[in-house]
Amino acid sequence: MMKPQLLTPVVLLILIMFFFLCTTISGQPSAPAAAPSGPSVPTGSSTGLLDITAILKKAGKFTTFIGLLKSTQVDDLINNQLKSNLGFTIFAPTDAAFSDLESGTLNSFTEEQKTALTKFHIVPSFLTVSQFQTVSNPVNTVAGDSMEFPLNVVSNGTQVNITTGLVNTTVDSTVYSDGQLAVYEILDVLLSQGIVKPLAEAPLSPKPEKASSPTAYAPSKSTAASAASSDAMCLLHCAPTVASVGVSVLAAVGLCL
User: Fold this and answer.
1) Is the pLDDT of residue 29 over 70?
2) Other C-beta atoms within 10 Å of 189: how many?
3) Is 62 within 8 Å of 94 (Cβ atoms)?
4) Is beta strand 88-93 parallel, antiparallel or unpaired with respect to 181-186?
5) Residues forming a β-bridge with 152
6) Which residues pair with 144 in a beta bridge?
7) Can you tell me the distance from the alpha carbon of 132 to that of 144, in angstroms, rounded to the nearest whole number?
8) Distance between CA atoms of residues 201 and 135, nearest Å
9) pLDDT tens across 62-94, in order?
10) Which residue in 45, 46, 133, 247 could disulfide with 155, CB within 3.0 to 4.6 Å?
11) Chain-centre distance of CA 232, in angstroms?
């Protein structure tokens, strides 16, 4: 009968210690939960800044266009403007599109033509696919004058068509879009008269005139001979007349004497 009475204080002590331990643990503040990260926007750069060549390189099928952007330094122009929060829309031809050009076309272009070609694919404003339905044509490009570089973009809501006067193509897909920069894949290289027309030839310099020969104005032998002959004939014709006049003069003087 004594055994249960001895265990009761022990059990009570254990219960008290357990209750105290639970209270201590529950009173400690829990570790803050990690804040949910927002949707990551691909920038193509480890620094977080937009880089057009990195974005295209990530897509994996724009090697030729990337080469043009770098060789003409248009990539620096775009990236610097993006840092100033300016928007761009880029129509990027695939490597297959450049392969479809007539053989040697790109290599035959001068550096000036390559720069114009690259800039002709860039619109200096951000355009969504839906905005192509209401955009004013011709669309201005970084290439300049819309008369030499006409770019017309028309959309029916399901397909976007692009015409330049020399090329008709369509937008195949959206490569990148973030509200500031939009990159669209196109199936053909955009060409215009301002790109393919031959450069004006430099005016030819006038040929130097040949120095005149010292004898250029000297009378020829035949001319001198002709003059001498003419003088002789004149003497033959004039001699009788002179003699007649002389006789008449002498007669008149004799009468006077």
Assistant:
1) no
2) 25
3) yes
4) parallel
5) 163
6) 141
7) 20
8) 37
9) 999 999 999 999 999 999 999 999 999 999 999
10) 133
11) 82
Taken in order 61, 190, 103, 74, is the CA torsion positive or negative? negative
Separate counts of helices (H) and strands (E) for the chain? 9, 6
Tokens 């669309």 found at: 139
Q: Is the Cβ–Cβ distance between 87 and 125 less than 8 Å?
A: yes
How far apart CA 77 and CA 85 sit, in angstroms, is 13
pLDDT of residue 37: 34
Average of pLDDT values for 196-215? 52
> Per-residue DSSP letters for 66-115?
HHHHHHTTHHHHHHHHHHTT--EEEEEE-HHHHHTSPTTHHHHS-HHHHH
pLDDT tens digit sequence for 113-133: 999 999 999 999 999 999 999
> Residue 95 burial by CB count (10 A; 0-12/13-18/19+): exposed, middle or buried?
middle
Long-range contacts of 5-10 (CB under 8 A, 24+ apart): none
Phi (first) and psi of residue 23, to 5 degrees: -65, -40
pLDDT score for 146: 83
Distances (CA, A) of 123 to 107, 128, 152, 192: 25, 12, 12, 15
Tell which residue, 58, 125, 115, 64, has the closest CA to residue 90: 125
Four-residue CA torsion sign, 61, 63, 68, 73: positive
Strands 160-163 and 152-155: antiparallel
For 14-56, the three-class secondary structure string (H helix, E strand, C coil) is HHHHHHHHHHHHHHCCCCCCCCCCCCCCCCCCCCCCCCHHHHH
